[in-house]
Amino acid sequence: MLGDREGPLVSTAEHVLAALRGMGVDNATIEVDGAEVPIMDGSAAAFVAAIDQAGIVTQPAVRRFIQVLKPVQVKIGDAMGELRPFAGGFRAEVEINFANKVIGHQTYAFDLSPEGFRREVARARTFGCMNDVARLWGAGFALGASFDNTVVFDEARLLNAEGLRYADECARHKVLDVIGDLALAGLPLLGSYRSVRGGHKLNNAVLKALLADRGAWRVVESETARRPVRGHVEAGASAVGGLVAPAYGPDVS
Asked: For a Cys-Cys bond, which of 25, 95, 157, 222 suits 233, CB 3.0-4.6 Å?
């Protein structure tokens, strides 16, 4: 994403991962035949539409989740990220505070579900400030970035003619990033993630810290399984049992 506290970035792979995780898909093969994942409109909406078009099929296999057992926190400068136990599935809470006054201070909390993801988060686009975009262009990066796939601000106003999709679209896109970044755990997380001034680097650091502490998580299995087959994807089960499966985890999956 552009204009992050950790430096200007353009990232699109997490949009695909966020779409899969957001829609409850935990068994998929991703093939990319180009140098990078297409940015589309800067959100996960196109990938959600593709998942919808593929359809939903239930597969008879046990679903596994990583359950957060104790708080794990990482600080990088004035940014903070933390995973905590949470009984309600997965929740993301983000707080951003940009020097750019048009973006400014925003907060957003989201409890993950397929329909909620589709409605509240999937359409939130990558955003940044015009000076960041111009600097990237000048260095030969982010050449595909445009007003068609990036929400761009200058010091006084939003520059996109179509306006925002949500009043707090920037904070919602940060939640989209969180969902995609934490999908790298290899299994869906059961826990609550909170970040302040966070970004991809911080999200990744918190996930690494969690997995490095073997007492901070365990693998649990769902009582019913719902997985995709034949290229189809599934909406995902929410019921989770308390079965520990120590032979399976991110380090061996």
From this structure: 25
In this structure, whether the domain defined by 13-244 belongs to CATH 3.30.300.20 is answered with: no
Q: Identify the active-site residue in 15, 105, 173, 200.
A: 200
Question: CA 97: distance to chain centroid?
Answer: 19
What are 96-101's contacts with CB under 8 Å, separation 24+?
96/170, 96/171, 96/174, 96/197, 96/198, 97/196, 97/197, 98/3, 98/129, 98/170, 100/3, 100/129, 100/153, 100/155, 101/155
Q: How does strand 243-244 pair with strand 151-153? A: unpaired
> Contact 68/189 with Cβ under 8 angstroms?
yes
List residues bridging with 81 in a β-sheet. Answer: 74, 195
Looking at the predicted structure, is the pLDDT value of residue 100 above 60? Answer: yes
Joined together, the tokens standing for residue 192 give 């609550």
Q: Is 232 a catalytic residue?
A: no
For the chain, the average pLDDT equals 82
143 touches 40 (CB < 8 A): no
Q: What would the two tokens of residue 65 be?
A: 């989740």
- C-alpha 180/C-alpha 103 separation (Å) is 22
